[in-house]
């Protein structure tokens, strides 16, 4: 359990006086039948994931992968293990949250795994004290992963849910884009399909230009959060950083 805390601390670098989770609590989760899984390489834990039972099925609360193994599909392997673990217990839905401004996570969750956003949560956790999230409001997308659904099955077979700006159609409108100076430009939301851009490296932007990073937070909340609050469906995320929203589809509850 101490190794799990080490992995999470290495990823998020929290205030030592305010750990993300304690070994004692992890032991309780494990003993009570929650999803508590560590990934080991050469005798050392390099990844960790915690999930617990919730109304919708399993809620995957936190996961982290050591920097030494990033880019080696460890995170993907963990999610496939989580899917198999859940299905073996009759659980068909997994939920989790992520920061909708982090492009690589949006692509991983929506395209590679085939999860579907169900709710935009403004400042969900309130002020956070770890180095990754400190100084920014903690907006999150809640996603649902329907484990027996078409996209999750395709994901498990290695086929991502691929969408492109071109595939969105000639009549798509741009709801959010970047100006030449990098600032967000709120556009139209009156088309059947709306494209919403996010920066490529928001985490770098938070360090180098916090005010610009905050401007993107508020713009995305207004546009993507507003569209989702109206009941519209996020149908995918492109590799080059666009959310695709289809206003003709009703989002699953």
Secondary structure layout plus pairing:
Elements: H1 2-12, H2 23-31, E1 35-41, E2 44-54, E3 57-65, H3 74-88, E4 93-98, H4 103-112, E5 116-121, E6 140-146, H5 150-156, E7 173-178, E8 184-186, E9 193-197, H6 202-208, H7 210-229, E10 232-237, E11 242-250
Parallel strand pairs: 3-4, 7-9
Antiparallel strand pairs: 1-2, 2-3, 4-6, 5-6, 7-8, 9-11, 10-11
Helix pairs in contact: 6-7
Protein name: GNAT family N-acetyltransferase
Keywords: Transferase
GO molecular function, one term: transferase activity
Would you kindly provide a brief summary of this structure?
The chain has 253 residues and is of the alpha+beta class. It is built from 7 helices and 11 strands.
Overall description:
The chain is an alpha+beta fold. It folds into two domains: 2-156, Gcn5-related N-acetyltransferase (GNAT) (Aminopeptidase); 166-250, no CATH class. The protein has helices spanning 2-12, 23-31, 74-88, 103-112, 150-156, 202-208, 210-229, and strands at 35-41, 44-54, 57-65, 93-98, 116-121, 140-146, 173-178, 184-186, 193-197, 232-237, 242-250. The strands form two sheets. It has a six-stranded mixed beta sheet with strand order 1-2-3-4-6-5, with helices on both faces. A five-stranded mixed beta sheet has the order 8-7-9-11-10. The chain is globular and about 50 Å long. It starts with a helix and ends with a strand. The mean pLDDT is 90. One of its GO terms (molecular function) is transferase activity. This is GNAT family N-acetyltransferase. It comes from Streptomyces inhibens. Keywords: Transferase.
């Amino acid at each position: 359990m101490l190794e799990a805390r080490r992995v999470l601390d290495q990823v998020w670098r929290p205030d030592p006086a305010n750990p993300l989770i304690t070994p004692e609590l992890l032991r309780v989760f494990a003993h009570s039948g929650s999803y508590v899984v560590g990934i080991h390489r050469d005798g050392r834990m390099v990844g960790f994931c915690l999930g617990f039972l919730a109304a919708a099925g399993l809620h995957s609360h936190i996961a982290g992968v050591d920097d030494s193994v990033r880019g080696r599909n460890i995170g993907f392997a963990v999610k496939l293990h989580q899917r198999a673990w859940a299905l073996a217990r009759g659980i068909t839905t997994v939920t989790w949250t992520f920061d909708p401004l982090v492009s690589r996570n949006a692509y991983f969750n929506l395209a590679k795994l085939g999860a579907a956003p169900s709710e935009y949560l403004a400042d969900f956790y309130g002020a956070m004290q770890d180095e990754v999230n400190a100084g920014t409001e903690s907006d999150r997308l809640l996603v649902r992963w329907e484990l027996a659904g078409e996209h999750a099955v395709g994901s498990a077979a290695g086929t991502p849910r691929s969408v492109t700006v071109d595939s969105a159609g000639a009549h798509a409108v741009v709801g959010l884009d970047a100006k030449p100076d990098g600032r967000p430009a709120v556009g139209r939301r009156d088309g059947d399909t709306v494209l919403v851009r996010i920066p490529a490296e928001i985490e770098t932007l938070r360090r180098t230009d916090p005010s610009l990073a905050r401007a993107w937070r508020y713009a995305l909340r207004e546009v993507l959060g507003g569209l989702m609050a109206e009941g519209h469906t996020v149908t995918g995320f492109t590799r080059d950083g666009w959310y695709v929203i289809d206003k003709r589809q009703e989002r699953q509850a």
